[in-house]
């Protein structure tokens, strides 16, 4: 069977209207130069991470501490959340609990309506992306202005962020220039990042000054003090929160850490893993509303307690959203964030999203070579590639893939047809047979041969390997 | 049942058996304060900040006077540097603060490993000030440099005031094609005076 028909035949019933990872990746790959650029740019970020990490002799000790502190916190999470709540309330912060995305969005809408607010600014929060807050509010007549530069760019373009740290990493400066020309009236054809950033600065300053309500995310919430930390490089979370008379901070239940001293470990890990910086420009510690201000925190579950109950996947809740696993992932780099059709893309997203909706996200755990590079860079030592492998088995046994084999094939179509990914990832021979023995037994459906101009060397080594292993 | 009860109930059902909390026992690699100062300067400059060591604050005083004569809106919050701008308080509006050209603020402590400076709310007078001013100047005693964040968290009390921040360099972004641009939303420049008076 032609692999293309094979794809068409089986992806649609599973994915419905949404393109699967491999289908979306195929489209992304049509622009080869751009795909190469995306790949190289993210690899450059990964290299900056390596350089920063090498300067810290105790790095591995920090990772172990980060991992162990998070393990401990998850094992006592209910008590830490109530401790946090009590202390935050004593600090004058109002606490709300949301079981799911809908309740989270409703709480924000209620505050907006009660306070008769019209101007809302938001700094980067992957949780609000996960809850589709912007769409929810705009359908109800409330305009939210995203203030992170990358997020503002994609918001103008009506696109979701493609990366949790670098939201507009899929775009070139020409794209940004066109978007700003259209929305901000910048000079046509002026692609200078300095000029474009200055235009956004002027535009967003006006929004900050006029805003009545600011929404931010939370990087860490401290149980023992009832405060929270927000990290940015641009200063947009602070500009918003300190200018508006109402501040709403949104956090998943897993953002809790026991004490302030634990920030020492996590802030050392976070920015180095994310961009290779020694720390983000601003690490802001909020404990009380300022005089005359209202401060709210929304604590959100949205599937996290369910994930906590899955022993194989619970450690995914340790994630501090640094995106190091994205930047190192050969599949992410060559398929782009939008191919993952979810708010959190990349390797960790492929573990978190099937928990939220197994059926819609059944393709994601297959968007990986299982090379293990993600697990190697993860600052809190999540065994990402092992969990991706476990999800594949789980999805089949849970019946979300009536014919598990076929789904795996479709999911793997992208990975298998891009040998360069293996070249980077390596280790092919060791995992391939174990993960997908059926592929090896049926050459006619092996999409390995799909790409026309496949590089010679990997093809050769694959054939050698295949010959040796087909028994 | 409220969402709060549902969430807490689900956690207590689903959480694993209690795992012990580890003790943070990171040793700093250098015990020489002089090295910490060197490292602080090197790192802060590598992330876009500027550092000047001074043995007398007279130069800063003069600089403020001259800038004021030149018509810039300079905000001084340190009594040792001369007249302080009493109009800056915690409830001052953003639209007024937006006109500040340069602000002088005292820092509590500097962190050698990452070039950041801790600022308490009472040092910045208004939470927006260090972000909304065009240029930020921090005065820090050279004796207040610690090797790393672990040491920093031992010395500060994050909950002592309503707000505090580790600030490391000028505001920046690389959101357009990973090109670094200084001056995103916050201050366009950061100058730290390390004072050994
Ligand atoms: S899984 Fe690990 S590497 Fe990936 S974003 Fe989370 S913390 Fe970072």
Write a concise keyword list for the protein shown above:
heterodimer, A: alpha/beta, Fumarate Reductase Iron-sulfur Protein, Chain B, domain 2, 6-stranded parallel β-sheet, 4-stranded mixed β-sheet, 10% strand, B: 197 residues, alpha/beta, Rossmann fold, 5-stranded parallel β-sheet, 7 helices, binds iron/sulfur cluster
Description of the structure:
- The complex is a heterodimer of chains A (471) and B (197).
- Chain A is α/β, with parallel strands linked by helices and 471 residues long.
- Chain A contains 24 helices and ten strands.
- Chain A folds into three domains: 8-48 and 312-397, Fumarate Reductase Iron-sulfur Protein, Chain B, domain 2 (Orthogonal Bundle), CATH 1.10.1060; 88-302, NagB/RpiA/CoA transferase-like (Rossmann fold, 3-Layer(aba) Sandwich), CATH 3.40.50; 418-470, no CATH class.
- Chain A has helices at 3-15, 21-28, 32-54, 59-75, 77-90, 101-114, 126-130, 133-139, 149-156, 173-184, 193-210, 236-243, 261-275, 304-308, 324-328, 330-335, 346-356, 373-377, 384-397, 404-416, 419-425, 428-435, 437-440, 456-469; strands at residues 94-98, 120-122, 144-146, 213-216, 220-222, 227-232, 246-252, 256-257, 282-286, 294-300.
- In chain A, strands 1-10-7-4-2-3 form a six-stranded parallel β-sheet, with helices on both faces. In chain A, strands 8-5-6-9 form a four-stranded mixed β-sheet, with helices on both faces.
- In chain A, strand 5 and strand 6 (227-232) form a beta hairpin.
- In chain A, helix 10 crosses helix 11 (193-210) and helix 17 runs parallel beside helix 19.
- The relative contact order of chain A is 0.14.
- Chain B has one domain: NagB/RpiA/CoA transferase-like (Rossmann fold), CATH 3.40.50.
- Chain B has a five-stranded parallel β-sheet, with helices on both faces. Chain B has a four-stranded mixed β-sheet with strand order 7-4-5-8. In chain B, strands 9-10 form a two-stranded antiparallel ribbon.
- The model of chain B has no long low-confidence stretch (mean pLDDT 95).
- Classes of the chains: A alpha/beta (471), B alpha/beta (197).
- Chains A and B meet through helix 3, helix 4, helix 5, helix 9 and helix 11 of A and helix 1, helix 7, strand 8 and strand 9 of B.
């Amino acid at each position: 069977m032609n692999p293309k028909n094979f794809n068409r035949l089986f992806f649609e019933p599973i994915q419905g209207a949404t393109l699967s990872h491999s289908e979306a990746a195929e489209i992304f790959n049509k622009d080869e130069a751009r795909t190469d650029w995306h790949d190289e740019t993210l690899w450059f970020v990964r290299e900056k991470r390596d350089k920063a990490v090498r300067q810290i002799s105790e790095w591995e000790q920090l990772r172990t501490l980060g991992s162990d502190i998070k393990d401990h916190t998850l094992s006592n999470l209910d008590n830490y959340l109530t401790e946090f709540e009590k202390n935050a309330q004593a600090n004058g912060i109002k606490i709300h609990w949301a079981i799911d995305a809908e309740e989270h969005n409703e709480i924000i809408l209620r505050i907006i309506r009660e306070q008769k607010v019209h101007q809302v600014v938001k700094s980067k929060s992957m949780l609000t992306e996960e809850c589709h807050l912007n769409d929810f509010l705009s359908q109800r007549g409330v305009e939210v202005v995203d203030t992170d530069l990358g997020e503002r760019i994609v918001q103008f373009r009506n696109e979701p962020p493609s990366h949790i740290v670098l939201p507009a990493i899929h775009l070139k400066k020409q794209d940004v220039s066109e978007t700003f020309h259209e929305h901000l009236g910048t000079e046509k054809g002026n692609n200078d990042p300095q000029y474009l950033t200055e235009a956004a600065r002027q535009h967003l300053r006006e929004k900050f000054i006029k805003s009545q309500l600011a929404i931010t995310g939370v990087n860490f919430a401290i149980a023992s003090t009832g405060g929270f930390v927000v990290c940015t490089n641009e200063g947009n979370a602070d500009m918003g929160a300190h200018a508006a008379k109402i501040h709403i901070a949104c956090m998943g239940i897993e953002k809790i850490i026991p004490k302030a001293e634990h920030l020492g470990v996590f802030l050392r890990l976070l920015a180095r893993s994310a961009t290779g910086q020694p720390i983000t420009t601003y690490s802001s510690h909020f404990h009380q509303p300022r005089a005359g201000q209202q401060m709210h925190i929304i604590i959100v579950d949205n599937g996290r307690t369910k994930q906590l109950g899955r022993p194989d996947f619970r450690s995914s809740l340790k994630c501090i959203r640094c995106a190091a696993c994205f930047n190192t992932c050969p599949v992410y780099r060559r398929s782009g964030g939008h191919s993952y059709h979810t708010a959190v893309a990349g390797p960790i997203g492929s573990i978190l999203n099937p928990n939220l909706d197994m059926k819609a996200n059944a393709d994601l755990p297959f968007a990986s070579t299982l090379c293990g590079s993600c697990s190697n860079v993860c600052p809190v030592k999540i065994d990402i590639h092992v969990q991706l492998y476990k999800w594949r088995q789980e999805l089949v046994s849970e019946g979300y893939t009536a014919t598990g084999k076929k789904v795996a094939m479709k999911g793997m179509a992208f990975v298998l047809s891009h040998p360069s990914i293996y070249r980077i990832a390596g280790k092919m021979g060791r995992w391939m047979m174990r993960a997908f023995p059926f592929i090896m037994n049926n050459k006619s459906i092996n999409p390995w041969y799909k790409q026309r101009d496949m590089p010679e060397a990997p093809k050769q080594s694959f054939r050698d390997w295949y010959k040796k292993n087909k028994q | 049942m409220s969402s709060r009860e549902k969430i807490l109930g689900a956690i207590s059902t689903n959480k694993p058996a209690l795992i012990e909390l580890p003790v943070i026992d990171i040793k700093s690699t250098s015990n020489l304060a002089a090295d910490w100062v060197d490292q602080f300067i090197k790192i802060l400059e590598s992330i876009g900040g500027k550092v000047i060591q001074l043995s007398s604050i007279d130069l800063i005083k003069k600089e403020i006077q001259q800038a004021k004569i030149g018509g810039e809106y300079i905000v001084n919050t340190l009594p040792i540097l001369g007249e302080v701008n009493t109009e800056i308080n915690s409830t001052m509006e953003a639209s007024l603060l937006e006109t500040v050209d340069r602000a002088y603020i005292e820092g509590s402590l500097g962190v050698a490993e990452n070039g950041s400076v801790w600022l308490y709310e009472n040092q910045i007078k208004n939470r927006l000030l260090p972000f909304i001013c065009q240029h930020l100047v921090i005065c820090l005693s050279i004796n207040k440099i610690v090797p790393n964040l672990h040491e920093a968290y031992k010395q500060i009390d994050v909950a002592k005031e309503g707000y505090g921040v580790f600030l490391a360099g000028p505001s920046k972004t690389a959101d357009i094609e990973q090109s670094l641009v200084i001056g995103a939303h916050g201050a366009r420049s950061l100058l730290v005076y390390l004072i050994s008076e």
